[in-house]
Design goal:
homodimer; alpha/beta; Rossmann fold; 3 domains; six-stranded parallel sheet; six-stranded mixed sheet; about 45% helix; elongated; DNA-binding
DNA sequence: CTGAAAGCGCTTACAG
DNA sequence: CTGAAAGCGCTTACAG
């Protein structure tokens, strides 16, 4: 298909057809309330007749408003981060703002270069999954002077704003529950990343303070059912009498449930299992997975809302928003 | 934190410091090979000293190249589409091209408005999940005169290019396999969307041509394990002697496996089960799920490659790329 | 190998 | 309620 580059319609084409100035066309498109109805109608008709679509590069250059929010994620392949992006997307919908997506595939190097690439894009706000830790990156973001929302991890000193929950708190919550249920040989299984380690720490500290024994197995695992099987295997090897396990996410927990079933170990009779994330998978499994509810979508949506509020210059709000944690006790303990 | 809007560094600041013209700075940044090494070094040092980051809106306006590829998905919340986006992202990495993400939440209305919003953004290419069916939308995209890659669904008449597989072919492949394995009471379960219905059609046609009875249950289900349970229930209600079921995706199939286990129905003895998508979940389940391998990432990556090649004006290649289908026979039939 | 001039297509004050 | 002028910060030919 040989397509001739259509000579695109510009704002002065519309102005000429409508018999007004370019500025009136511009105004009709962005502040129609400031234009006399009759004029507005003529302009709108001209826009439709010509199929005029404003050039956003020109608009962004002149107005210093790109209508773009950057979102930086470790990987869009992990459903929890995808859900967070979806929350941001829904928050932005209706404002005609678009998302510029940066996926750095868990590579620190790609993260830095993406941050710099996004920095040149006149973003109106930036939302990142995780905290920005590098001093030079923080300085870069600060120099941009745009709203920045760090999500998932909480910190006392966000670059600008943060929305998330305490990973140590999640671990501690799970341990407290197990202790209260009379379990005494506890274990944690999860990824060997910053979030996993924080959950492990909160879990084991609380367990030991409660006079229970506790092991933590953190490994380079993704969000894979098969990894849950492996973690279970390692946990039982390290601490054979384990009677309660907290996994860093529901997928790992379901993997462990499958492995426990294959081994004929009763849940929760022999071992109690708890996940994190409240995924549909855990709800549909039998026995239904107990979990700590952390809703990825409900991190993304407020992050988007906060970014919008900051862009509008209203609702300063708190610097740090803790979305909190809820224990969802179901059948696995 | 009260941040003063940093007076941003512009290209002429760099030019002044380096003692060259703006144009030489510009050239150093995009075609360093055309600049004398000594000059280049001076410019690069000035860029670093000042922390200069080019304004991409101005660059896009002047060069008519935005460095942005649009990606339109029904929802980023479905992991298969997220994987496709990840494939596109990886394909674009290293070219300093960014993804503008449009998530329309399966709403035809939002899809149309997003398409129009993206149309104004000087995209260098557009990748969409699914086919663009509306004539007005197709006309809009054609008028943009940019590469367009439709993914997942195949068609003989793409707007520009298409990468995907035949949904009817997938259904037919599953049915042929079941027939060859001596099954005679077949069923399909899946979503009541365009892809689900096409898979159902291919499946039932082939089944009946093979003298097997076949029912197809298509419902408004997402990609949920619980939906797989429900579909199984409905299938057995409609056709109690069903001995082989093809599900539109692996998640539904695993849901059915859980339900079959709860009901004490042997797999594959009593019922054979096959999914589609080759998800890790199916591989980690026991018995391991047989599936038709369709790799979402491997649809996204070539889509990105094709877009890049078209942007570069090289490698015309075929208009339609069929990524093909592979039957992965494991333990469930 | 380097630069002066013109222009990309909008919007921002400001004036009336 | 509407418009003339200036400018946003780059890059594109073109010339030398």
């Amino acid at each position: 298909m040989l397509v001739m580059k259509a000579p695109s319609v510009r704002i002065d084409d519309v102005a000429r057809l409508a018999g007004v100035s370019m500025i009136t066309v511009s105004r009709t498109l962005r502040r129609p309330d400031l234009v006399k109805p009759a004029t507005r109608d003529r302009v709108q008709r001209a826009v439709e007749t010509l199929g005029y679509i404003p050039n956003s590069s020109a608009s962004a250059l002149a107005s210093r408003r790109s209508g773009i929010v950057g979102v930086l994620v470790p990987t869009i392949g992990n459903s929890i981060f995808a859900e967070t992006v979806r929350g941001v997307s829904d928050s932005l919908a209706g404002r005609n703002m678009q998302i510029l997506l940066g996926d750095y595939g868990y590579s620190a190097e790609r993260e830095r270069s993406l941050l710099r690439a996004l920095a040149g894009r006149q973003l109106e706000a930036l939302i990142v999954v995780g905290l920005v830790r590098e001093a030079s990156d923080r300085a870069l973001l600060a120099s941009l002077a745009i709203p920045v929302v760090e999500t998932w991890d909480l910190t006392r000193k966000p670059v600008d704003r943060a929305v998330g929950f305490s990973n140590r708190g999640a671990g501690s919550l799970a341990a407290r529950h197990f202790l209260g249920a009379g379990r005494h040989s506890l274990a944690f299984g999860g990824g060997n990343d910053i979030r996993g380690r924080a959950r492990a720490q909160g879990f084991t500290e609380t367990a030991r303070r409660g006079a229970a024994s506790a092991v933590a197995v953190t490994r380079d695992v993704g969000t894979a059912v098969g990894s849950g099987r492996e973690l279970l295997d390692e946990i039982l090897r390290q601490q054979p009498d384990t009677d309660a396990i907290f996994f860093a996410n529901d997928v790992l927990a379901v993997g462990a449930l499958l492995e426990l079933r294959d081994r004929g170990l009763a849940v929760p009779g022999r071992v109690a299992v708890m996940g994190l994330g409240d995924l549909e998978l855990g709800r549909a499994y039998r026995p239904q997975l107990s979990t700590i509810s952390v809703n990825a979508y409900k991190i993304g949506a407020p992050a988007g809302d906060i970014a919008l509020a900051r862009i509008d210059g209203v609702g300063a709000g708190p610097r740090v928003v803790d979305v909190g944690l809820e224990l969802l006790l179901r059948e696995t303990g």
